[in-house]
Amino acid sequence: MSGFNALTRFGLRSAFIAILACVQPFDDVEAEEVRQRGTVASKQEAMPDLSHLVRRGGQEVHSTGRIIKGIYYENAPNANNSVVAFHNACNQALEDNPFLVFDFELKKYYFDSDRNGYADEVGVLLYPDIDPADFYVRLPDAATYCYNDGHPV
């Protein structure tokens, strides 16, 4: 039976389910993550453009050592928070690009592990709780960020 005949005989919905069945996660842990968060891999989607939003709070970092700094944004002055962007910081120096952005209005997150401006992972926020530490440990340089030869910078 040709592919077209299979589509017409079993319907488009069945064919779509069959196609999805061919795209499976690598292991059970990844499969559970996909079910819980609606994860979609994305190497081509740009991180959200924050330049048109109103930033609530400064980009200053007053602490030394390695920290995660969250900066909230809103669509208009005195509106509710629309987005929060999480940046790495080392010894009072904030990285330019965030590694994680939560968009509260779209209920999505964008994870950029190499901070190149393109999302490595986009997913759905199923829970209102946000914790950047869960994503931070997945950064390739998490263990060595803000360290030089194994010693804090």
What would you note in describing this structure?
With 153 residues, the chain is an alpha+beta fold. The chain contains three helices and ten strands. The strands form two sheets. Strands 1, 2, 3, 4, 5, 6, 7 and 8 form an eight-stranded antiparallel sheet that branches. The longest helix is centred in the first third of the chain and has 20 residues. The protein is globular and about 40 Å long. The relative contact order is 0.15.
Number of strands: 10
Order of helices and strands: HHEEEEEEEEHEE
Described by the principal axes of the CA atoms, the overall outline is globular
Total helix count?
3
Structurally, the number of domains stands at: 2
N-to-C span: 65 Å
Secondary structure category: alpha+beta
The largest β sheet comes out as:
8 strands, antiparallel
Strand content: 25-35%
Radius of gyration: 20 Å
Question: Which structural traits does this protein have?
Answer:
153 residues, alpha+beta, 2 domains, two-stranded antiparallel sheet, disordered N terminus
Architecture blueprint of SSEs:
Blueprint: H1 3-22, H2 28-37, E1 40-41, E2 54-56, E3 66-74, E4 81-90, E5 93-94, E6 100-103, E7 108-111, E8 121-124, H3 132-136, E9 147-148, E10 151-152
Antiparallel strand pairs: 1-8, 2-3, 3-4, 4-5, 4-6, 6-7, 7-8, 9-10
Summarize the structure.
This protein has 153 residues and is an alpha+beta fold. Helix content is 23%, strand content 27%. It has 2 domains: 1-37, no CATH class; 40-147, no CATH class.
